[in-house]
Amino acid sequence: MMKKIWKIVALTAVILLIAGVVCIGVSYFLGGSVSDLYENKTVLSLLDMFSPESIIGSITAFFGA
Amino acid sequence: MNRQQFLAELSQYLTFFSPEEKTKIISAYNEKFDSAGPECEAAVLAELGTPMMTAIDLKRRVEAGEKISFGEEVSCEETADETPSELSVETETEATLESENTEASDEPSDHSETENEPPETLPEAVAEKRKPRGAKLVFALIGASLLSLVIAALFLTIASVGIGAFTAMSYLMIAGLNNLLYLTDALMLFGGGLVLFALGLIVVWFAIWSAVSLISKLFRGACKKGSAASEKE
Predict the structure, then answer these.
(1) pLDDT at residue B73 in the model
(2) Where along chain B do its domains lie?
(3) Among partner residues B178, B179, B191, which is closest to A21 by beta-carbon distance?
(4) Which residues contact B186 (CB under 8 A, 6 or more apart)?
(5) Is there a single domain that holds both residue A39 and residue A11?
(6) Which helix (H) or strand (E) holds B69?
(7) Inter-chain contact A2–B213, Cβ cutoff 8 Å?
(8) Residue among A12, A23, A31 whose CB faces B190 most closely
(9) pLDDT, tens digit (0-9, with 9 covering 90-100), for B4-56
(10) Looking at beta carbons, which residues of chain B come within 8 Å of A27?
C-alpha cells in the first residue's frame, strides 16, 4: 500500500518538476530572466516575501530569538 | 507467494502468541495445506489472504475468546479429508478432539502428536491465554506512546516545510495569473510554483510515511519485547 502511494507521489513529483522546468526553460527561451522578474513591481513584494533573509527573519521571530 | 513463504511470513506476524501456540497454529495451517494437496495450494492461499491479515484475524479472535477459523475447505478438493476447518488456537478444534475421541476407540494409534492432546487440557490453556499481560508490557506501551509523540512532532516539523512550499506555490501561481500579460514573467512564476509543489509533495509524503512506519515498528517492537518480558515473569 505504502509502496503504491510512494510510486504515485514520485511519479506526480517528477511530472510536476518536468513541467516546472519546461515552463522556466520556455520563459528563458522567450527572453525572460529572474532579474527581469525583480523589475516587475507586482511580483517584487512576493519575491521579497520568499527571499531567504525574509524566511530566516520570520523563523527567528517565531522562536523569539 | 507459495506455501512456504506464506507460513514463514505468518510465523513472523504471530508475535502475540507464545512459541508453543505459534507452532500449533503453523502446524494447523500445514495440515490444511497437506489435506488440500499441492494442486489446491493456490486456492488455499487465495482463500487465506495475506499472512498479515490472517495473523490480525487470529489475534482478534483470541482476544475475543472466539474459536479460530483456519479457513473453509477449498472447492478444488475432491476427496473429503479428515482435517477440520475450525480449530482452537491453543490446541486443535473441539471438533477434532471430539472426532478423535470417537475414533480413538476404533483406531487408537493412527494420529499425529498434536491430535493426541487430551481435551481436558483445553480449559486450562484457555484460562492461561486469557491471563492479562504483565506490567512490563504496559510500561513498554507507555514508553512507545511517549516516543511516538516525539517522532510525530519531529515529522510534523518536516511536513510543515512541505506545507510552506505548498503555500509559496499557491502565491507564485496567483502572481503568475495576475501577470499573464507579461508572458515570460508568468511562465517563470508558474515554473517556480510547479517545482515548489513537487518538492512540497515529496517532503510531506516522506514525513507522513516515515512517521507512520517508525511509529508502527515502535509499537510492534514494544509489544513483542513487553510480551516476552511478561512471559519470563
Answers:
(1) 57
(2) 3-128, 135-232
(3) B191
(4) B176, B177, B179, B180
(5) no
(6) strand B68-69
(7) yes
(8) A23
(9) 888 888 888 887 777 888 888 888 888 888 888 887 888 888 888 888 888 88
(10) 183-185, 187-188, 191
CB contact under 8 A, B175 and A42: yes
Query: From CA A19, how far away is CA B26, in angstroms rounded?
Result: 52
Is this model's pTM higher than 0.95 or not? no
Q: For residue A33, what is its C-alpha cell? A: 530572466
Q: Note whether B188 contacts A22, CB cutoff 8 Å.
A: no
Q: A40 with A52, same domain?
A: yes
Cα–Cα distance between B117 and B91 in angstroms, integer? 8
Write the DSSP assignment of B148-159 as a string of letters.
Answer: HHHHHHHHHHHH
Where does residue B87 fall: left (phi above 0), alpha (psi -120 to 50 degrees), or beta otherwise? beta
Q: Would you call B161 an interface residue with chain A, using a CB distance cutoff of 8 Å? A: no
C-alpha cell at B62: 483470541
Provide the ipTM. Answer: 0.85
C-alpha–C-alpha distance, residues B3 and B30, integer Å? 8
Are both A40 and A64 inside the same structural domain?
Answer: yes
Number of domains in chain A: 2
Residues of A in contact with B198 (CB under 8 A): 12-14, 16-17, 20
Among B140, B120, B148, which residue's Cα sits nearest to residue B233?
B140
Q: Are residues A21 and A44 in the same domain?
A: no
- C-alpha span between B181 and B11 (Å, rounded): 65
